[in-house]
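Morning!

This is the sequence you dropped in the shared folder:
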Amino acid sequence: MIEDFYRIKRLPPYVFAEVNRLKAAARARGADIIDLGMGNPDLDAPQHVRDKLIEAVAKPRVDRYSASKGIPGLLRAQAAYYDRRFGVKLKPDTQVIATLGSKEGFANMAQAITSPGDVVLVPNPSYPIHAFGFLMAGGVIRSVPAEPTPAFFPALERAMTHSIPKPIALVVCYPANPTAHVASLDFYRDLVQFAKTHGIMLLSDLAYAEVYFDDKNPPPSILQIPGAMDVAVEFTSMSKTFSMAGWRMGFAVGNERMLAALSRVKSYLDYGAFTPIQVAATAALNGPTDCIEEMRQTYKRRRDVLVESFTNAGWAFEPPQASMFAWVKIPQPYAKLGSLEFSKILVDKAEVAVAPGIGFGEHGDEYVRIALVENEHRIRQAARNLKKFFGGGTDSLHNVIPLAKQA
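The structure's back. Tokens below.
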């Protein structure tokens, strides 16, 4: 029986699957579901990147096995990106690895560094792989706050004091998925000092490095802090920056010892991405950056429309400063439902899909995540649908509670 498998038993039911099932059923009935749930970019990859892919595919001998840690040109391109963007010098041969997206990188790093019973500190709420990659590797998760404020460090100290055995690593993710929090260099400076003082590793998820809306304060890298390379590995992705989510291309950079362990695990599990994809990714990193700015402005316009139209519909929230998400508290009349039931109700009654916050950790259950993956017209339509649903007032709430109880 599947439930007897050790690693499967460590994984809870995938809560997003329930919302996905309702979306599919509603669409089968002919409903026009406006899907703001999954962070799946609807924008096209830049034309010059797709052209390079086509050119590379047409060449001979590209169908052979590729390089597990990445072709040399791609590793050099990622190192050059870090130099331009963050002023961080990386050695392509030993401090850069190409991954099959940041998700695979995290999961395999967990396999590489975790012994059964090891404790890892993970923000709650956080992107699921941050916790479940370590759970699947036999580790134990201790939750810490997600917001990068001074209160973060007393919580870390308590975790270090009261965890047995002592934690081996801390995961951070800024700009954060799902909360959209952004960290400062001062925060990272304190974090690196904390890691060195306590002898723990740092794993930083920087997948949303280029999706930000304050041009004067682009999100920094933890590797900008002197000495961070001694304790940290950072994961990036081309999924959002270049709208290449389905291409599955990301990177791990930083500490050589940790990356050597990741490389060894990967050498047993995969032969790297298809070579033409790596060639096209190299062209993306080395190419013009106007496509990145266009992406950023598209998400900024959508963010502004989302905040304005949802506020007018009766669901007000602060505009996120980065990422392609808004992390939004459930309206008070519906708070007792919890995020999963509220998300299911929105699909059924408003034809709008969002991601339930409980899917990112128990501390996310008062929230839903709204993704900027529909155009401005569709976002306004979602707001109109919500306004009509909210217009039912307390009668609307009474109508949905029985549905929640039946689920």
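Headline: The chain has two domains: 2-44+291-406, 47-286.

More detail when I'm at my desk.
O.
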